[in-house]
Amino acid sequence: MARIENHPILGKFRKGRKVRFYLDGNAMEGFEGEPIAAALKAAGVIVHRYTQKRHEPRGIFCAIGRCTDCVMVVDGVPNVRTCMTPLAEGMNVQTQYGVLAKKAEGWTGR
Ligand code: FES
To answer: Is the beta carbon of 42 within 6 A of some atom in ligand 1?
Structure first.
């Protein structure tokens, strides 16, 4: 598991409760409140999106909300920075292809 449990300087991390979420329709588990990207990384997922022109894979790069390499479609909303967005029970996370300017189908305004 690729998850830091006890950091030599920051100490032991407190976790939220274990929750189920979905990546491209597949059930996964993570901890409530951790960044979506952290839950994906812990599960071995490194590709979050593909670039529009060259279809190259992108994943966590800065991990501080600056680069947009980690954006995905979350609950139908495109361009969500998963390194900055807390995980919640039942989230529907999808790999993003290109830059999606419009809200994805099924977007409910969340
Ligand atoms: S990894 Fe750079 S914005 Fe998320």
So the answer is: no
